[in-house]
Amino acid sequence: MRDAFDMLVVGGGINGAGIARDAAGRGLRVCLCEQDDLAAHTSSASSKLIHGGLRYLQQGEFTLVRKALNERDTLRRLAPHLIQPLSFVLPHVQQLRPAWMLRAGLWLYDHLGTTTAHFPRSQRLDLHRDARGQALQPRYRRGFAYADARVDDARLVLLNALDAQARGAEIRVRTRCEQLIRHSDHWWAVLRTGNGDVQRVRAGCVVNASGPWAGSVLERAGLDAPLGLRLVQGSHIVVPRLFEHDSAYVLQQPDGRIVFVIPFEDDYTLIGTTDTDFDGDPAGARILDDEQAYLLEAVNRYLRVPVRTEDVRWRYSGVRPLLADHHTRASRVTRDYRLALDTAGAPLLSVLGGKLTTYRVLAEQALETLAPHLPAPGPAWTAQGPALPGGEDGDAAQVGAQLRRDYPRLPPALLQRLARTYGSRAAALLGNADTAATLGHHYGAGLYQRELDHLVEHEWARTTEDVLWRRTRLGLQFSAAQRDALATALRARTAMA
């Protein structure tokens, strides 16, 4: 039967894509359905970090921090072109936390995870001597530096989906799971595509990885919504580059929270995040004016040159499904996860909570939880398995250097962006192109027809949002006229399909 699977994964965010990849790699027949685009919501609206979560130590989240820290090297090995080690500068403010407390927290951070060349131990800084102190107000004299990493979150989701597909999984984007009908040993799922077609899928088990929609999916299965799920909105803003160096800042705030200030896409700086309780449709999450004001005020407490409202070039929000705990403040709610297995009939596993950094180990645990109910799945494999697509030949610098040797007549800036975006797969995208003219029509900001064809034919891109904000970050550089021209071209392709 063509539409019969061992597992149906509902949700195309980082957890759903990671579970689909892990399951397909164990030899299972997998179908993943996503009602919108891959990473359309929470998984493309993060702070774009692979990190242990230094601030969670103060909340006693030692297990979560250890788990996340130990994933840094594993994930970097899987996607070295996407995941770049990054130094974080933490200015010391005596009125907020004494220096001994910061030193103790960083010592624990160093020792909970594995220290490597990419993620060295923390160190003290004299901000009046260190070049990274120049962007700060003179009153900040001392600080600390530690290591974590940044990542293109949406492309990390995409690579997991691509690898799942390469291992035999069916990836059905813009396909909504409208109903789940349970039997003793299988599920029937009613799926509706974007053009209104209805499909029926049989699955031995269902994984509910729909993030903030987890309760809604359970209701479609006739089950109670999960207990203890708390929706929290996190918002970010992007402004022109605020400093020359390539380190990030971690800025402590009077309310006990921290705000990241992170180099972003060469010419910009990413500032976030907020933590605000959310009630409503997660697809409608939008940054609030007071959230933007909070982020600007947070940065201006520290930076020498003020950042103003008119500097904001892009802003975005996502809704995180967190596990409700005893904390009343959203910023203190745990970022750990829980896997809830319902076996009153064919099994259904709900993924509740979680964070970007721990998606791989979450997926591995999900497969182990479901193993007794699956047809002889293979062993765990993702920790030591092959790299994600594009990660086979090293990091973006190594791939970029090879592309410059192989394509000497193409713009170096274009080649470096392609290396950072596609890794070793960039050469296949470029093919035999020897000049920019051979790449086809130029839509703007280095996006040529050949790349657009690749995104549509191989990466499920259909809209300008898909292309400019999830498959690439070129939306920051596109004018309104260029966006309109791109939208027209995409509509024409869709009409021809």
Structure write-up:
The chain has 497 residues and is of the alpha+beta class. It folds into three domains: 4-42 and 154-225 and 335-373, FAD/NAD(P)-binding domain, CATH 3.50.50; 48-152 and 230-332, D-Amino Acid Oxidase, subunit A, domain 2 (D-Amino Acid Oxidase, Chain A, domain 2, 2-Layer Sandwich); 396-496, Orthogonal Bundle (Helicase, Ruva Protein, domain 3), CATH 1.10.8.870. It contains 13 helices and 20 strands. It has helices at 14-25, 62-78, 99-112, 153-166, 214-220, 289-300, 359-370, 396-406, 412-422, 426-430, 449-458, 464-471, 480-496, and strands at residues 4-10, 30-33, 49-50, 84-91, 123-126, 142-150, 170-172, 175-182, 187-193, 198-208, 229-240, 248-252, 258-264, 268-272, 276-277, 314-323, 337-342, 348-353, 442-444, 447-448. Strands 3, 4, 5, 6, 11, 12, 13, 14, 15 and 16 form a ten-stranded mixed β-sheet that branches. Strands 1, 2, 7, 8, 9, 10, 17 and 18 form an eight-stranded mixed β-sheet that branches. Strands 19-20 form a two-stranded antiparallel ribbon. Helix 1 packs across helix 7 (359-370). The mean pLDDT is 94.
